[in-house]
Amino acid sequence: MSHADPIAEPSADLSNAALVRRMLALAWKYRFGCLQIIALQGVLLVLSVVGLTMLGTAIDVIRHAAVAGSPSPNFPFGWTPPSEWTPYRVALVAAGTVLVVGLVRALFSFWLAIVVARVVQLGIVVALRSLVYDKLQRLGFRFFDRHTTGSIINRVTGDVQSVRLFVDGVVIPVIMVLLSLVLYFVYMLRLHVGLTLACLATMPVTWLLSVRFSRKVRPAYERNRDLVDRMVLTLTENVRGVHVVKGFGREPEEIAKFDQASGAVRTQQHWIFEQVSRYTPTVEMLSSLNQAVLLGYGGWLVIQGALPLGGGLIVFSGLLQQFSSQVTRVAGIINSVQQSLTGARRVFEIVDAPVEISSPASPVRLPKIAGELVFENVSFGYDPTKPVLRNVSLTIKPGQCVALVGATGAGKTSLLSLIPRFYDPTAGRVLLDGVDLRQFELDELRRSIGVVFQESFLFSDTIAANIAFGRPDATPEQVEAAARIASADEFICEYPQGYETKLREGGSNLSGGQRQRLAIARALLLSPPILLMDDPTAAVDPRTEHEILDAMQSAMQGRTTIVVAHRLSMLRRADLVLVLDDGEIVDQGTHEELMHRPGPYRKAARIQVDFNEPEPLERAS
Ligand code: M5T
Ligand code: MG
Questions:
Q1: How many C-beta neighbours within 10 Å does residue 274 have?
Q2: pLDDT-based confidence at 546, cuts 50/70/90?
Q3: What's the rounded mean pLDDT across residues 60-73?
Q4: Which positions ≥6 away from 30 have C-beta within 8 Å?
Q5: CA of 583 to the centre of ligand 1 (A)
Q6: Does residue 599 contact residue 578 with C-beta atoms inside 8 Å?
Q7: 2 pLDDT exceeds 70?
Q8: Interatomic CA distance for residues 91 and 60, integer angstroms
C-alpha cells in the first residue's frame, strides 16, 4: 500500500471534447423526454409554415377577386375549392384555418412548456444537484480546504443550471435549428430557386460573424464565473463574520470590498453585453439587406408574373425572416455552449474529484474495538511539502486517558484529525487495535470515535436533535443522560421548551460554553470506544470545568480518550501526558513525572501553579 498522499489534482479529462461527450451522455439519458420536446417543437414548426401558407393563399384569392386580370391562386396541399364557392367564402375558409392553426399551436406550446419543465427543471437539474451534493458528502477535508465556500455553493446551485442549459439550450435547439433551416430552405427553393439563392447570399457572412463572436466571448464567460465566486465569498464571509466586522467598525471597508467584487462582475458582464449588443444589430442589419433584395428582385418577379404575390412573395418573406432568425439563434446557441462548458467543468470537477479518503474494497471487521492507538513514524502536512507533524510515534493503551499539550500551532488538532481519518498521514501509519486505520470501513471507524471539535458546530435544529446527531435513534432518556454528564442538563432545562428548544443557525443563541457542552454531550451519546476532545473546556469557567471533568470521569471509564488540554486540573487526571512541540513529541509521561524533570512542560505548568504568587523570572523565561 502506498502511503504517499499527494494533493490530488482532479485527474479526469476535462477538455471541451470530453465535457461535450459527457453532456451528450446526460442528454441521452433523458432521450425520451428530449424526443418528446423535439416532436412537439416539430409540430409547432410545421404548424407555423401551414399558417403562413394559408395567409399567402388567402391574399392571392382576395387579389384575384378584387383586381381584374390578376392571376388565379395556387391552392396548397393539392386541394381546390368547389367551383360554386365564392372567392369571399374561400378567403373566409382560409381565415378560419389560420385561426384553427393558431389555436392548435397554442395548445401544443402549452404542452411543450409542461414537458420542458418536467424533463429539464424537475429531471436533469434535480438529478445533477443531488449528484453533486452526494459527492460533496463523500469528499475529504482536503477538497474543502482547496475550495472556498462561495465556489462550492455556486457549483451546486448556479453551475448545475449551466449544465442543463446544454440540453435545453444546445442539444434540442441545434436539432430544431437544423430541422427548420432544412424545411424553410426546401420550401423557398420550391417557390423560386433564383430568389432563394439571392436572398441567402449574406448567410455565410452571418455565420462567420457568429463564429468570430463566440471565439471572442468564450474566455470572458470563464472569468465571469470566477468573479461571481469571489463576490459570493465576500458576501458569505461578511455574513459569518458579522460580529468581527461590527466590532471593529469596519462596515465601510466591507461595503467597499463588496462593491469592488460586485463592480468587477459588472465590468466583466458589461464587456460581454457590449460584445453581444454589437453582434446582434450587425446580424439584424444583414437581414434587412436580405429584405431589400427580396423586395427588389422578388417584386420584379411578381410584376413579371413569375411569382404569385401571396403564395409566393409574402410566404417567401415570412420564410426568409424565420430563416435568418434561426441563423441568428446559432450565436445564442454558441453562447450557451460556452456557458454550459464552463459550468460543466466546475460541476464535473466535483463529480470527478478523487475521494482521497475512502473505505478499502475488503475492510477489516473487528468484533469489538478495544481502543489501542499506535502512531508509527507518522508525518503529515496539509501541504505535503510543509510538514505539520514530524515522525510522531506513540502508543496509547486501551482505556487510557491521554492529555495532549503543546503551544498553539504545535499540531494538536492535526494529530487528532488523523484518527478519524479526516486526513491520512503523508508517511507512517496509524493503527487501531493493531490494524492500519486505512483498512477499516470508514463509516464504522468514524462511528466508533466520538469527536468534540475545537470549534463546535451546531445545526439549526432542536437541542435534542443536535445531541442525537450521531445517533438519531437515541431515546430521550439517553439524550438527557449524555447532557447530564456534559453538565448541559441544567441550562437546557431552564429553557421553557427544554430539549425541544430550537437553536439558531450555528447555535448562535447559546453561549460559547453552552455550545461546547452540547458538543460534548453529542460525542458522549455515541458511547464510542474512542473519545477525542479538542480543548473541550476552553470556553467554560474553572468551576464548570470541574463539574464536567468529574462527571466525565465515569464516562471515560473503559474508553480511550485523548484530550487537548491546557489546565492543570485536566492534566493531573490524565494517565499519560504527551508534549507536542512544533509537530514533534518532545516528552511524555504522567503529570507527576513530567513535573519532576526540567523541560517545556514543567516550565509551562509552573506558570499556572505560580499564577497566584507571580515570579517574574520564571514567567519570563
Ligand atoms: C498546526 C497548520 C497551522 C499550523 C499547523 C487546522 C489546520 C492547520 N494548519 C493548516 O495548514 N491547515 C489546517 O487546516 O497546521 O495546526 P494545528 O494542528 O491546528 O495546531 P494546534 O491545534 O496545536 O493549535 P491550537 O491553536 O489549536 O492550540 O501551523 O497553520
Ligand atoms: Mg487546535
A1: 10
A2: confident
A3: 81
A4: 119, 123, 124, 167
A5: 10
A6: no
A7: no
A8: 9
Beta bridge partners of 533: 452, 563
C-alpha cell at 164: 442543463
Cell numbers representing residue 606 in the block: 509552573
Least-confidence region, from 1-10, 58-67, 104-113: 1-10
Residue 7 CA to residue 517 CA, distance in Å, equals: 35
Using DSSP's 3-state secondary structure scheme, residue 576 falls into: strand
In this structure, the number of other CB atoms found within 10 A of the CB of residue 211 comes to 13
Residues with CB under 5 A from ligand 2 (ion): 413, 454
Rounded to whole angstroms, how far apart are CA atoms 440 and 462? 33
Domain boundaries, the chain: 13-233+271-351, 371-448+530-621, 455-527
Cβ pair 480, 518 in contact under 8 A: no
13-233+271-351 matches 455-527 in fold: no
Torsion angle (degrees, nearest 10) of CA 444, 447, 448, 451: 140
Where does residue 276 rank: exposed (0-12), middle (13-18), buried (19+ CB within 10 A)?
middle
pLDDT at 3 > cutoff 70: no
Nearest atom (ligand 1) to Cα of 410: 23
Q: List, for residues 258-286, the tens digit of each pLDDT value.
A: 999 999 999 999 998 888 888 888 877 88
Residue 30 sits at φ, ψ, to 5 deg, of: -105, 30
Residue 263, amino acid = G
- Tell me the torsion sign for CA atoms 494, 495, 501, 506: negative
Task: State residue 147's pLDDT score.
Answer: 85
Question: Which residue among 413, 415, 416 has the greatest number of ligand 1 atoms within 8 angstroms of its CB, and so is best to mutate?
Answer: 413
pTM: 0.71
| Class of the CATH domain delimited by 455-527 | alpha beta
H-type helices in 304-360, by residue range? 315-352
CATH class, 371-448+530-621 region? alpha beta
CA dist., res. 499 & res. 483, Å (int): 10
Q: What is the pLDDT of residue 267?
A: 92
- Which one is predicted more confidently, 382 or 606? 382
**Helix ranges restricted to H, 440-532:** 442-447, 463-467, 476-485, 489-494, 512-525
| Nearest Cα to Cα of residue 506 among 490, 518, 492, 494 | 518
> Which residues lie across from 440 on neighbouring strands?
364
Name the residue of 144, 147, 388, 455 to mutate for ligand 1: max ligand atoms within 8 A of Cβ: 388
Mean pLDDT score, 307-320: 90
Compute the C-alpha angle 360/366/371, nearest 5°.
105
- 449-452 and 530-534 beta bridge pairing: parallel
CATH 1.20.1560.10 fits 13-233+271-351, yes or no: yes
Contact 225, 346 (CB under 8 A): yes
